[in-house]
Structure formats: C-alpha cells, structure tokens
TrEMBL record:
<keyword id="KW-0560">Oxidoreductase</keyword>
<comment type="pathway">
    <text>Cofactor biosynthesis; NAD(+) biosynthesis; quinolinate from L-kynurenine: step 1/3.</text>
</comment>
<keyword id="KW-0662">Pyridine nucleotide biosynthesis</keyword>
<comment type="function">
    <text>Catalyzes the hydroxylation of L-kynurenine (L-Kyn) to form 3-hydroxy-L-kynurenine (L-3OHKyn). Required for synthesis of quinolinic acid.</text>
</comment>
<keyword id="KW-0503">Monooxygenase</keyword>
<comment type="similarity">
    <text>Belongs to the aromatic-ring hydroxylase family. KMO subfamily.</text>
</comment>
<keyword id="KW-0274">FAD</keyword>
<dbReference type="GO" id="GO:0006569">
    <property type="term" value="P:L-tryptophan catabolic process"/>
</dbReference>
<dbReference type="GO" id="GO:0070189">
    <property type="term" value="P:kynurenine metabolic process"/>
</dbReference>
<dbReference type="GO" id="GO:0043420">
    <property type="term" value="P:anthranilate metabolic process"/>
</dbReference>
<dbReference type="GO" id="GO:0004502">
    <property type="term" value="F:kynurenine 3-monooxygenase activity"/>
</dbReference>
<protein>
    <recommendedName>
        <fullName>Kynurenine 3-monooxygenase</fullName>
        <ecNumber>1.14.13.9</ecNumber>
    </recommendedName>
</protein>
<dbReference type="GO" id="GO:0071949">
    <property type="term" value="F:FAD binding"/>
</dbReference>
<dbReference type="GO" id="GO:0009435">
    <property type="term" value="P:NAD+ biosynthetic process"/>
</dbReference>
<keyword id="KW-0521">NADP</keyword>
<keyword id="KW-0285">Flavoprotein</keyword>
<dbReference type="GO" id="GO:0019805">
    <property type="term" value="P:quinolinate biosynthetic process"/>
</dbReference>
Length: 391
C-alpha cells in the first residue's frame, strides 16, 4: 500500500466542506487525497439531490476568501437584499436585511459552488478520487475500504494516517468511528419535510419575480420559500408537516401526496406562486421529499486517526440557512489547528473545543425558530414575524 508523507491527510467527501478543506490544506503544503462516492460533477453534471441553492452569508464568504475562492463563487451568486413576504391576499413587502447593500446575503447554486470548489482544490494540488464510496475503516491497521459503484462495486483498500469525515449527514466515517468509540451520537428528526420545485425564467430570459430577494410565503405551520438562481430561475422549497392537522386546516405530506394534490394546495394557499410554477406537478412527483433533522455528537474525533466536520459532525435543520456557512467555518478552524499543532490528536481536540459550542448554538437557534413557529399557531402576527426570522 502507498506510503504517505508526514503531512498526508485523507478526506472523505468532496462536497462543500470536503472541497474547501482540501483547498485550504493543499495551499498550506499538505498532501491531500479526497475520496468522493459520486462521479465528477464537472463531467457528469450535478446530481439532483437536496437543496439546489443555498444562502451564503458573511461567515461563509469569509472562509471562501481565505481559500481564494470568493471571487469565483461570487461571479455566480445572486444578491438577496431582504425577504420578500407574500401575504395571503397577494400583497408583497420587501424587508431589507440591513441598511444598505453592504448587509445582504447571497443565493448560490449548490452544483456550481461545488464545481468551483473542486477546481480550486485541484489547482491547489489536492488529488480527487471519484466513484470512491467509503464502506469501512479499520482504525487499528489504518486501512480504509472504498467501493466503486460505477464499476459494479469493486472494493479497494487504502492506507491512511488520518481520515477526515466531510461525508455529510449520513457519514459512513462516523458510522465506522462509532464501532471503535462512543461518539455520544443523538439524532432528532422534525415532523416536517420539504420538497423542491422550480420557477422557470420569463419568456424574455429574465426573472419572473424580483430577483434580489429571498421570497417567503408564510402560512403558520407550513410555508414556501424561493431563492433565485443565476440562470433566472428560482428554486422553491415547500415545507409541510408530515401529518396534516385537518381540524386547523394545516396540510401535510400525508394528504398532499401527488403533483395534483400539490397544485390544489398551491392554488388555494399560494395562488401567486402557483401561477409561476408551470411544472409543479412534475417537480412534485419526481423530486425526493427531504427529511429534516439535527445531529448531536459529544465527540468529533478518534484521537489522531479520524475527525468529523460539517454535516457529518453537526447536521442541522435549515431554518437559519447556516449549515454550509458553519461547515465552511469548520474548514478554516481545522486547517488552522492542524497548522498550529504538530500533534494531530491535540489539533482535533482544540478544533472540537472551538467549534462544537458554536455548532450547538447555531443548531439550537435553527430549531428554536422551527419550534416557536410550530407552537404559536394561534397568533398570525407572531407567526409571520417568526417566519420572517427564518432567514
Ligand atoms: P454535504 O454537502 O452533504 O457533502 C457530503 C459529500 O460527501 C457529498 O459530496 C457526498 O456525495 C459525499 N459522501 C457521502 N457519503 C460518502 C461516502 N460514504 N464516501 C465518500 N463520499 C461520500 N446551509 C446554508 O448555509 N445555507 C442555506 O441556505 C441552506 N439551505 C439548506 C436547505 C435545505 C433544504 C437543506 C437540507 C440544507 C440546507 N443547508 C443550508 C445546509 C447545507 O446543505 C449543509 O450544511 C452543507 O451541504 C454541509 O456540507 P458538507 O460538505 O458537510 O456535506
């Protein structure tokens, strides 16, 4: 098996955190191998999965700047000055995030962002291995096993000194670490889920509604939001409870099961949005329904042999739009601690000490917004206010 240098590190997952961390470490002279289960999205196009676009805030941009990735990312970002609230009666109201355009957030396309970050990671010297799904790790022999799903699942073994888990909420590395040590893992799922739909461009190629805003249709215990994409589309996300509350006229994914059901709901509750989504039935029937949950871990690392970051360490509900921003901050912190301390176990402890309380605080805030929104269903003004604070 390959012999690695003292500054070698193996990252699992070339998603948002994996690609950014690979860049930051390669730029600091680390020898970085990244193993990603999917094919190269730059060749295959981005696989439609979850959350097509994301709100990028200053926390995330600051991390991108440190990797020299901010300009390339911002070239495709759409500014969101504030929330455009769509009331039941069709009125709209733009509520700015700050005094002027120095206080805004940005809508970025997950696929484009990932591709930019992969290019930058490769340019910095990181080696990217696609179709390499981590299926197991032996921490005694320091051997990781990867399956190549593109060629029938052939499994190869690879030696490692340290594995970094940037493999998302369902992290296979976390699972492997849990077999060796108790990470104190706890997950809490919400009884809400989400579905993505699309508003296409206008016939002249422009945006159909105000592009520089995050659109919200708050309706108490459920809602819809829309974020702009640079190709003049909007990604709409419908959040609904899993179970309807018919007494209080609250729909759920158990009553809204088909595209036709969804169209009827939109016509009734979001008529202005319904008119903008010609392929609502198709989108609803084809796109997966996403679950929402929070992952808590007491321990993010296994001495110097493995460490987790991003969603693999602290997945959260999206009601503050901070999961990616928080994952990017993790990358900067981990790269800094690895530079500071030659002892990797010490670096990982310091990383966890710095980042775990921050992640917990953001998870809590994201959940609080959800809980308050869910529980205060009798107060329309209050509900509206809370929904506005979601982003
Ligand atoms: P991921 O982006 O999930 O990347 C994990 C990578 O690992 C993927 O490429 C995957 O293919 C790969 N992988 C998985 N398993 C393996 C394996 N076994 N072997 C090898 N590779 C593997 N955050 C924001 O900041 N702003 C927002 O507006 C926002 N909106 C959101 C809306 C929704 C509906 C959801 C669900 C999330 C939202 N988030 C948002 C959160 C954000 O999506 C995540 O926090 C972010 O993607 C975490 O990045 P990550 O790199 O840790 O994980």
């Amino acid at each position: 098996m390959t012999q690695h240098t003292d500054k070698h590190i193996t990252i699992i997952g070339a998603g948002l955190a994996g690609a950014l961390l690979a860049t930051l470490l390669a730029q600091r002279g680390w020898e970085v191998d990244v193993h990603e289960m999917r094919g190269d999205p730059r060749l295959l196009g981005y696989e439609r999965g979850r959350s097509i676009n994301l709100a990028l805030a200053e926390r995330g941009r600051n991390a991108l700047r440190q990797a020299g990735a901010d300009d390339a990312v911002m070239a495709q970002a759409v500014m969101m000055r504030g929330r455009m609230v769509h009331f039941r009666d069709g009125r709209t109201d733009l509520q700015r995030y700050g005094r002027d355009d120095s206080e805004v957030i940005w809508s970025v396309h997950r696929g484009e962002l990932n591709q930019v970050l992969l290019d930058i990671a490769e340019a910095a010297g990181a080696r990217l291995h696609f179709n390499q799904r981590l299926v197991g790790a032996d921490f005694d022999t320091r051997t990781a096993r990867f399956a190549d799903d593109a060629s029938g699942g052939a499994v190869t073994e690879m030696a490692f000194r340290t594995l970094v888990g940037a493999d998302g909420a369902g992290s296979a590395l976390r699972k492997a670490m849990s077999a060796s040590t108790d990470l104190g893992e706890r997950s809490k799922f919400l009884n809400h889920a989400y579905k993505e739909l699309e508003i296409p461009p206008a016939s002249d190629g422009g945006f159909l509604i105000e592009p520089n805003a995050l659109h919200i249709w708050p309706r108490g215990r459920y809602m819809c939001i829309a974020l702009p994409n640079d190709e003049s589309t909007f990604t709409v996300t419908l959040f609904l409870p899993n179970e309807a509350d018919l007494e209080n006229d609250v729909p759920g994914f158990d009553t809204v099961q088909t595209g036709a059901d969804a169209r009827a709901l939109f016509d009734r509750q979001f008529p202005d949005a319904s008119r903008l989504i010609p392929h609502l039935e198709r989108d609803f029937d084809t796109n997966p329904t996403g679950v929402l949950g929070t992952l808590y871990l007491e321990h993010w690392h296994l001495d110097e042999r493995a460490v987790l970051l991003g969603d693999a360490a602290h997945a959260m509900v999206p009601f503050h739009g901070q999961g990616m921003n928080c994952a990017f901050e993790d990358c900067v912190a981990l790269a800094r601690h690895l530079e500071r301390s030659p002892d990797r176990a010490e670096a990982f402890s310091a990383f966890q000490r710095e980042r775990l309380p921050n992640a917990r605080a953001i998870q809590h805030m994201a959940l609080e917004n959800y809980l308050e929104m869910r529980d205060r269903v009798d107060d329309d003004d209050y509900l509206l206010q809370r929904a506005l604070e979601l982003r």
